[in-house]
Amino acid sequence: MFRVLVTDEVDQEGVVLLTAEPALQVDELPTLPKDELLRRIGEYDAIVGRSATRISAELLKAGGKLKVVGRAGVGVDNIELDVATSLGIAIINAPAGNTVAVAELFFGTVIGLLRQLHTAAAAMGDGRWDRAKFMGRELKGKTLGIVGLGRIGSEVAARAHAFGMTVVAYDPYIADERFAALRVRRAPSLDALLAETNVLTLHVPLTDETRGMIGKRELARLPARSVVVNLARGGVIEEAALQAALETDQLRGAVLDVFTVEPLAPDSPLRNIPNLVLTPHLGANTVEAQRNVSRDVCVAVRDALLHNDLSRSINVSGATGEWSELQSAMLLTRRAAAVARAVLADQGMRAVRRVALRVSPDLAHGTGAMLAAAAAGVLEGVIETDRLNLINARSLAEARGLELSVAETTELGSGRALEVSLSGGMQQLAVAGVAPEGGTPRLTRIGSFHVDVNPRQTLLVLTNHDVPGVIGRVGTLLGERGVNIAEYHQARLAQGGDALAAVSVDGTVSEETRKALLELSDVRSASIVHFRNE
Ligand SMILES: NC(=O)c1ccc[n+]([C@@H]2O[C@H](COP(=O)([O-])OP(=O)(O)OC[C@H]3O[C@@H](n4cnc5c(N)ncnc54)[C@H](O)[C@@H]3O)[C@@H](O)[C@H]2O)c1
Ligand SMILES: O=C(O)CC[C@@H](O)C(=O)O
């Protein structure tokens, strides 16, 4: 049974998908004060919320059972991502569901500002009939400057054409083809964009690069009497600089839906600027958007908890396509790495320095997730495993100085083949296998020895002299100790030379049995690999 805390008034459309699951116990609570949430978070396996709840490092650390944080929305700037990743907590957002809501709010607020709708409506409420005072401006013929041509920026651009605007955008991370498809002219720099913009709109995430990207200097580059709109995140625009530009009439007006500190203080000076339209972070506040994001995030949180499906987790990198299709490859990668680590450890090499993964072209789409699986295989049994998973394995490995690399190769053949090679000092061992989609993964090579065995439950890897009777002696010893053999694959390089046995057995094998195996004549080494259940 997993316990899920749903907070911040996440729409019911998604919440019912969680409550319908017998294996999930869902508590719906309003946005909790920080200290109360901190006290209660330890009870939960997952938390689902919107932007009102800050997922701080302190909260993540206090969430001893926490596996998933779901964000019903796009922005994850309220979540300490690095800390979540290092703790192995999946972060899942709902990136697309509120795009249209924000794009529509842009036009609603800008037209409202240009036509002074909010003051005209207030004047009507006061019993007045002022027409001359409310002379407006049109969008037609104006140049819209978009910073950030992602989902929302693109929807704004598409609608701006219908208003007869010229659309220019600055986004160094978007390809020319996308600009062309959207009929948007690319500005070579932010400064170039600002110089020709009448209506500036920001649709970037809050990052180290975008924090404060529009300040006094940038506002001064806009043509006189331009309009500035921020529906993205507080902090992208310097509020004091914006206030000054509005108060000196350098700008015609501005719209802010987001603020450096939310909620905006009741006595904030921003509240008293007549040509500034303020909304209380309403970008995503439509019935449609809230349904969309709630459904998207709740489905993904459910699948992460119940089916270990991390494909929607933004802190597991490098897997495109169906997660289920990669399951067998990730499992085999992790187990191949664990086999290589155990065998090398028994040969005296405990400190792995390099992990090199090679995959056949038909697995190239999953290399990021598979590399994480390889790192997890190397680390399990070496570090505390409760928290080790595909989310934190790479960062934990890198923090221990392991070099991780991945390459696509045709040398392994096709048929979803992979090889994990571990090295350190002068020693190196490669373990290879094949992972049919939906089928049983098989190890096909350990070092130079060709084997064919399913790495399930426990694998014994024995090396011996290729002489008659060894298989019988090993089988008898294991039988006497109640160890049931599922598969026994004996491989040798040349008759009478070195041989290796890969023996898949049920249950676990004790250290004492390993020592007894080592005492059998002609057995040179014996490694036991207990695979974790995943
Ligand atoms: N007001 C609201 O309620 C509300 C609702 C939804 C989203 N948002 C905000 O809007 C932002 C954008 O949402 P989206 O869905 O379009 O995200 P997105 O990821 O699809 O688009 C963001 C774009 O910004 C670009 N970008 C990043 N850094 C940049 C930089 N330094 N200069 C120029 N461009 C840069 C990226 O390349 C990307 O194309 C979100 O990050 C969120 O903070 C606000
Ligand atoms: O309504 C909210 O939770 C804010 C949503 C919005 O800012 C987002 O990033 O998706």
UniProtKB/TrEMBL annotation:
It is an enzyme of class 1 (oxidoreductase). InterPro entries: ACT-like_dom_sf (IPR045865), ACT_dom (IPR002912), ASB_dom_sf (IPR029009), D-2-hydroxyacid_DH (IPR050857), D-isomer_2_OHA_DH_cat_dom (IPR006139), D-isomer_DH_CS1 (IPR029752), D-isomer_DH_NAD-bd (IPR006140), NAD(P)-bd_dom_sf (IPR036291). This is D-3-phosphoglycerate dehydrogenase. One of its GO terms (biological process) is L-serine biosynthetic process. It comes from the Bacteria. Catalyzes the reversible oxidation of 3-phospho-D-glycerate to 3-phosphonooxypyruvate, the first step of the phosphorylated L-serine biosynthesis pathway. Also catalyzes the reversible oxidation of 2-hydroxyglutarate to 2-oxoglutarate. Pathway: Amino-acid biosynthesis; L-serine biosynthesis; L-serine from 3-phospho-D-glycerate: step 1/3. Its EC number is 1.1.1.95. It catalyses: (2R)-3-phosphoglycerate + NAD(+) = 3-phosphooxypyruvate + NADH + H(+); (R)-2-hydroxyglutarate + NAD(+) = 2-oxoglutarate + NADH + H(+). Belongs to the D-isomer specific 2-hydroxyacid dehydrogenase family. CDD domains: ACT_3PGDH-xct, PGDH_4. Residues 459-531 form the ACT domain. GO terms for molecular function: NAD binding; phosphoglycerate dehydrogenase activity. Keywords: Amino-acid biosynthesis, NAD, Oxidoreductase, Serine biosynthesis. It holds the Pfam family ACT.
